[in-house]
Each structure stands twice: as C-alpha cells, then as structure tokens.
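Table S2 (text version). Query chain:
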Amino acid sequence: MKKASARSIIFKAAALLILIVIAVVMFIIGRGHTVYIDNKTLDYEGETYKAFNRVNVYVNGERIGKLASRERGKSTNIGQSFTMTIEVTREKGNDPETYENLEFKLPYNWDGIVINVPGYLNNLPQEAWMTEFVSQTTEAPAEEEVNTDELDEFALGDF
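Corresponding structure-token output:
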C-alpha cells in the first residue's frame, strides 16, 4: 500500500473544507420562509392597535395582497432578510400612505412568520408584530358510545 504524500493530503483536506463552507453558505442563503402579512387588530400591553381599512402589500414589485381589515396575505421568501412595500389606507375615504423598502431580518429557525402591519407601523417592539406561524389543528370529536339497551326498542330481540 502506497503512502499518501503530504501534498496530496493537504489538497484533499482543502477540497473537503471548501465543500463544507459551500454547504453551510447554501444552507443559510437558501433557507425558505413563508411570510404572512396580517392586517388585524393587535392588543399589546393593554393598548389596542386597530386594523387599517385597506393594505396593499408588494414584494419584489409584485402585489401579494390587497388586505381589508382582518385579512392575511402570504409570500414565500428565500434568505434571511425580507423587504416589502406597503400602501395603507387608514380610514375609508382617506388617501393611501406608502411605506417603501421596509426591511427586516427573519428568524432563522422559523418556517412560517406572521407580520402584523398595525403593530409594525406603530413602532412596537419586534416581538409584538412578528410571531411564529403555528397551524391551528382541530381534534377529531371523540366517538360516541352506543347504548345497546336502547336498540331493543325496535323489538329485534336477539337478532
């Protein structure tokens, strides 16, 4: 069996290190998130922040939602930063206000992220307007137990 030269070992170790670095970078850059944009009333520390009459949300120049009060839009984002433009009509009949290039970092370990527009525009802390999306699952109702004593009312006997 031949002995590997020191130069050969160095090249193999360098190639392995480069592959590991590329894998880590791609893992971080390529991380996908589903971002939900909410136009819902928010209660935070005893204060109520009312939902807006209408919110238009744009990501990468494309409108992803025209949200009335109590509605939610959705966008898929690759990477750790998220940028959007929103157009807010606070009350019916008012002119819309535009907020461009709203950018923030997304938590790496969350797949679904909910952004509350009224909380964000009222300069609340991030934990008030950004939450992790948790799917609401409903439990199946428990099966009813059948009372066999009542079945005999049809006079079936021991059928």
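Notes on Table S2: The chain has a mean pLDDT of 85. The chain has three helices and ten strands.
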